[in-house]
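Holo prediction — zinc ion.
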Amino acid sequence: MKFFWVFLFALFSFVLFSFFGNPPILTVTDNLIGLKNNLAGIFFVASTSEELLKTKYAAAKNGGEAIRILIVPGHDSASVGAQFKNVKEADLTAELGERLAALFENGKEFEAITVRTKSGYSPEIASYLEKERSSIQAFRDGYRLYMKSAVDSGLVTRREGVSHNDAPEEWTIKLYGINKWANENDVDLVLHIHFNDHGGRPANRLGKYSGFAIYFPEKQFSNAEASAAVARNIFNRLSAYFAPSDMPQESPGIVEEQELIAVGSNNSLDPAGMLIEYDYIYEPQFLYPETRQAIIDELAFQTYMGIKDFFDGTATGAENPPETTLLPYKWNSDMKEGFTGSADVLSLQAALIREGVYPPPGFTRNDCPITGVFKKCTVAAVKDFQKEYGIGPTGYVGPQTRKILNEKYAPQQ
Ligand SMILES: [Zn+2]
């Protein structure tokens, strides 16, 4: 019997050696665990890749089939998601989705498909969700079972991420239905658009956290590699002007995730995919029409640029400083502490970021985001800007300060 075990160990070591190239120095038990850990991560076969997407993109630029991007604005009119005063998440996500889709219309190399606009679901998707209901349920249950057996046999490791509210039955059907539709319709990239909330905050009161977070599929999943690469490019663009989330589990704003249906939980999504929480719903820039429009445009633009960076293979922020829709900008009136919901202040804050004085010393990007609200962060940054240009530091943006701002940041005549 003893001989048998030695023989088995030798055989096992040989197998391990040939698989992974490491001389076996562990015990049989360790080797067994090692084998499982190594297999976990290579169990699901890649369904897309960075290289595949870039090859398709190169062909698309030469008149080939376009890169298909499915835009999924989170929630809907029946279930609006996060809410703060009169700001509804479902409205913000629809506005951002429409804006983003419009940007992709610029070139033939992209084709954007939007699941829902402010006027409702796309008729094609709506009828798919209705007609395919039972096959979607079978799809969902099949993947759940498949994942469970892979985890039970040690081939895949389950990872608990940030806790999310479990989606109710109807929503699991919608979300798995969207994954199924994407798998069947040659979609290359799925983007779920959301706005975050700090659970447990009293209604109409500000929450504790701020900033954006991008959730992308955990590395064992079939669509992980390509998704991570696209996510990183979007992250780099967004983080030039926006703070990554300071919620501890989301920090630093880019999060591997196994459980969200949107990124393909149970390995149910073939194309690259991610879910972006663009900011917390209670941020003041969303409350006022003037800044809301400008900030939605900017968030869509940075997302678009990140995706372009990925496909074009350009280093992120190829242009220095990185582009923003908030600049160039012409300031026609003075600005001072107390201004709220002001597009002038929004662009002033972007200019102050460019100047390297926003946030002012002692503050973080999360303390001082781009909000269109002129408060202590902006006062301190304007004073630093004024010192830099030899103006008495008052924190008030009068004709002299505006003149310098316009010389540097107004559109060229
Ligand atoms: Zn949401």
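READOUT: The longest strand covers residues 272-280.
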